[in-house]
Amino acid sequence: MHKTLASIIALLLFFTLIPVHGHAAATYSAKLSTSVVPQVVIVTAEGRIKAEDFKIINGMTYIPAKDAAPLIQAVVRWSISTQTVSIENRHVNVTWNTKSDVLKVNGKDVTLTTKPLLLTNRTYIPLALLQQVFQLHCNWDAPTKTVTITPDKAGS
Q1: Is residue 58 over pLDDT 70?
Q2: How far apart, in whole angstroms, are the C-alpha atoms of residue 125 and residue 66?
Q3: The overall pTM is greater than 0.85
């Protein structure tokens, strides 16, 4: 009787202390998973474009003005003499002097809380500004760390 009881206890200890193969594999594979790299996807009438050169600074996402142009159907111009960026489409004309916190939208001054950045000779526009001025929709998918930017159907 003692031998049977000891055998049962030994088996119980064996199965509780040693993980089952499937559980061990699940634990092991979880440790091997790689982190998801953030990405920005721009959706235009022509399809989806992955913005390659975006920046995340202090929790804000910025994309190059050249990448935003097809999305908002705009022309982007840079004046080296005045240090001014101009972005124009059918509905909106935006100008920004890089030395100022004021943006002109259709001729009216708008004080910026988050302004564009000049980095390595490129103008980066914060997504929040694109949403506000050009009525774009930005959707954040946390599991894939993807921002998807689409134009407002009524405004494009």
Answers
A1: yes
A2: 10
A3: no
